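Dear U.,

Please find below the material for section 3 of the report. The protein was modelled together with 2-acetamido-2-deoxy-beta-D-glucopyranose; I have listed the sequence and SMILES used, followed by the predicted complex structure.
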Amino acid sequence: MVIRFKLPTMGTILLVLLVGLFSAGTASADGIAHIHPHPRMLSLVQQQPLVLEYHNGALLKGNYSLTLLWYGSFSPAQRAIIVDFFNSLSTPIPTAGKKVPPTVASWWRTTESYKSGATAISVGRQVLMDRYPLGKTLTPRNIRLLATPGRHKNIITVVLTAADVSVEGFCMSSCGSHGSARLPWSKTRGARFPYIWVGNSATQCPGQCAWPFHRPIYGPQSPPLVAPNRDVGIDGMVINLATLVAGTVTNPYDQGFFQGPKEAPLEAVSACTGMFGSGAFPGYPGNVLTDPVTKASYNAVGIRLRKYLLPAMWNPKTSQCATLGGAHLLIRGELCEASWPRLESETDQALKRKGQHTLKRDAKDGSVPRPKTARTREYGKGEGVRGIGRWAPSPSMAVEPVGHLT
Ligand SMILES: *[C@@H]1O[C@H](CO)[C@@H](O)[C@H](O)[C@H]1NC(C)=O
C-alpha cells in the first residue's frame, strides 16, 4: 500500500473547515471521554466504528530482520535516528521503577493483537548506495529491483531514498509504499517477499510527507511541531516507516487486515491517518508530549531514550485507533512532563556538550563508508504495491479510496 496524500477537493476542504470549527475538543479515537469547553456538533465529526477485516491470509509473525538499503546520501546521524527507531520496536526500555512515557515497544505491541503472536523486529544488513547506482530519478520498478537481491527469508527489505532522489509518484501522490514481489522461479518457486520504500521529503514536499513537523500546504493550519530528532525529513520518514512496517506485518500480501478494496486498503496505521495524540482532528495532530527545553514534540521513547512521534494504530481489541499513552496524554504536554522526569536522550546530551542546546539539525558528520553497488538484475514482477499518502492528515479524508502506485 502507498502512503498517499490526497489533495483535498473543495468538499473535503469544507468538511475540514467545519470539523475544525466545531471540534476544538473532539472525541478522541481512544474512546476516552473528554471534558469539552463547549458542546460540539458531534454528529459532524463522530467516526464510524472502524473495522479492519481479516482476509484470511498470511501475516508476518515471529522474528524478522530488516535489510536497510540507503539510496543516496544520508548522514550517520540520520541513519542512527531510523536504525534506533527500528531497533526500539522490539526492545523494551528498562524503566527500573521510574515513570517513563510510552515506549516505541509498547506502540508496536498492538500488532500482537492482529490474530495472535508477536513480530520481533531488528535491523539486520545495511547497504549504502550513496553513489546513486540507478541515478536520481527512480520508478517503482527500480525500487523493486533494488529490493530484490539478497536473502529474504524472515526479512523485510526497506529502501530509503535520500532527499535529492525523485521517485515516480513521490510528492505527487505518495510518501512511500509497501508491497511484495516474487523471486525467480528457478531457485525459489517464485516465493514472495515483502518490501517497503520511503523517501526523505525534506526538500521536495515536507508539507505533505513530513507533517506535522512542517506546515501542510493545504487545509487547516496549525503551527508545525518541533521534530523530536531535529530533522524534519528524517522524523517524517519515521512516521511513514512506522505506518508501512505496521501495514507490512498485518497485511503483507493483500490478504491480511484492512478495510476497503485491496488495491487501496486502509491498514493498521493508515486507517488512522493524521492522529498522534488524544483529541486529534483534521489539521491538528492531537495532544502529545513536549520537551520543556528543546520544545520537541514526541509521544514515545525508544532505545537510548531517543524520542519519536508515532502515529495512532488501530487496535483490534477495541476497534479504535489508539493513540499512545491513552489517559495519560489527555493532559497537555507540560503536565505530563511534570510527572515524568525530563528524559535526556543521548542526542540531547551531545547537543548540550556542543553548546547547541537548540533546535538545530544534526550536523552532517563527514565520512560515509564506501558504497556497495547494488545489483540490479531483473527478477520477477512486483505485485500488490500500495502506498500511503499523507497529506495533512484528516481521518475524514483517510476513508477516501486511494489508487495503485503502479
Ligand atoms: C526469536 O528470537 C528469540 C531470541 O533471539 C528466540 O528466543 C525465539 O525462539 C525466536 N522465535 C522464533 C519464532 O524463531
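For the text of the report, you could mention the following: The chain has two domains: 24-331, 342-395.

Regards,
Y.
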